[in-house]
């Protein structure tokens, strides 16, 4: 069955997930994986569904019908490339005073080493006792064969010291 990757966004209110799930189920689809959150008053998410090939176009039409409630874009999904299951995983956690450039500098290190971000969660919150804002990130990356995790860790630690953030890197 074809996989579709749905991106969804709409004004946050009750019933959004149910409306999306109803459209998927009504067309014989199966909800496989999702990540969703309320961000700045908007409900946003990414959903992976499978749907019978002969019903995919009907599902796309039904998703277009959710306009006004949710804006949904359907993109063809693909299977993971061969051998990706052999890639190691690293978990990267960082926290520090919020300022522009943290995500850019950390993602640049990951890109230089050929690492692929599997998941990334970030948030900004009040700093207890010190005032100001803290930035916190939790990143799970895939490390291709032949890449030395120690070299990645060393460069991330150097960047973390320049950014004045605390960093931990560990095998997942």
Automatic annotation (TrEMBL):
| Pfam families from the UniProt entry | ACT, ACT_6
GO BP:
regulation of DNA-templated transcription
Q: Which SUPFAM superfamilies match?
A: ACT-like
Matching InterPro entries: ACT-like_dom_sf, ACT_dom, GcvR, UPF0237/GcvR_regulator
What are the ACT domain coordinates in residue numbering?
5-77, 91-172
Q: What is this protein called?
A: Glycine cleavage system regulatory protein
